[in-house]
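Weekly puzzle thread! Below is a chain. First person to post its structure in token form gets bragging rights.
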Amino acid sequence: MKLNYKRTLFVGFAFFLICLFWQAYDNIVPKILIDKFGMSQTWSGVIMALDNVLALFMLPLFGSISDKCKSKLGRRTPFILIGTICACVLFVGLSFADNLQLKNLGPAARFVTGSDGLRSIDAEGMKSIYDATEGMILETTDEGKQFVLGKDISEKEFLSIKAEIRTEEGKTAVNPVFSNYVVPAREAYAATVKDANKLPLALFVIVLLLLLVSMATFRSPAVALMPDVTIKPLRSKANAIINLMGTAGGILVLALGMVFATGKYYNAMISYTGYFSLIAGLMLLALLVFLWKVKEPKLVEKMKADSAKYGIEEVDADAPENLRKLSKEEKQSLFFILASIVLWFMGYNAVTSKYSVYAGTVLNLDYNSTLLIAQAAAIVAYLPVGMVASKLGRKKTIMAGIIMLTTAFFVASFLRQGSPAFVMNLMFALAGIGWATINVNSFPMVVELAKGGNVGKYTGFYYTASMAAQTLTPLFSGYLMDTTGTMTVLFPYATLFAALAFFTMIFVKHGDSKPEARKGLEAMDVDD
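Winning reply:
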């Protein structure tokens, strides 16, 4: 028997639409919170952690609930159907709450182009910003010097600042004076507007919470579907296809970000209604393809028949007496696998949740292009990684991935504005390959310890660990940036946690693809 790539591809459409959402969410929501609501890195980290707080109990809960579901559509499909529709409606609704704040910001949110072709903020908007922030400390440099409007820079000087300058080569570039004075002043102005009228923020947070609940109801069921329909020895390779589909969703969003120019400084105050509506439409389209091609009950029965044919341990998912009890050694391995998941997500998610801001602040780069390179590298790596793991084992492959991820973050720690862009792109490509290597094999290691009746529960364990990390890391990294006064601590922070994950993986002794199963499949000319 060989892995049915076409069938697995269609199963992956559920993960594809999930990743469409999360890529857009991670890129845009922190920008909205900082640019339009004037939040600090710490408080934006708190908001960004909400989905992970909800996920800590909702993902295991809905994973277990879906284990017991007896719908005609199957155990997982009803959750994917209802959750996706609700999430799409709420995602578009989120942009309307954002538009309320944008309207309140008025001219301060508008860029205009002067007779010389250089952009600047609307004159009335600049006056509003200055009046609201005069005398406020706006920035602390690496040397510790504090800039105060009204003291270090006069009103006349402030109002004359343009957003762009022309370089000696005649090209247009962001004015560093604009970045140092106007951007933090406008963020401070946005905070005063938010404090004067809290309705837009209240609506934004309420809709955001409902949206995150909708996403949480079907994430575990969607991911648990792959092991439901795939025999155990093929799951690393199948998970490579699933992750490839998810990465394709992320790449599509990044490409759309480049089309909409969401990473450009002059679009920091745009309305995202059209962008969010397009993402929601693509999610619904992916859902329709999934429902058309994936008949869950039929695929589950085929998996059971294949498992029986090749003598692979599998049980009736509906029989509670068949739920697996782990030995002491297996429990220890599960603990260290989950600890490793926490650690590498602490490092990786800190970068992904802050990089859209970091790229513009520290590197003066468009975050879309750099992240796109990482995603493209991951796509290229997924299938080879699955094949390597089938030969060397999942644990060794994961540890190689951790080394790549740690190396990429370590080198990125030394890059600043003016550093060659290709170096950062190269490091993100390496990080993408490393992350693909880890992702393809870590989830199968967890569910390898499960039996058919509790795959959803073990999927919940996996996501509880990853979401616990993603809950804490935006808070820790944001607080660290605020207290040190610089975003440059981001990559050293990520490097530390990625390196720690290597050491916890050393103690994992179970969850690897079994050598005897691999040999048996090879003897039967089975592609594992």
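Puzzle host: Confirmed. Bonus trivia for everyone else. The first strand starts at residue 111 and ends at 113.
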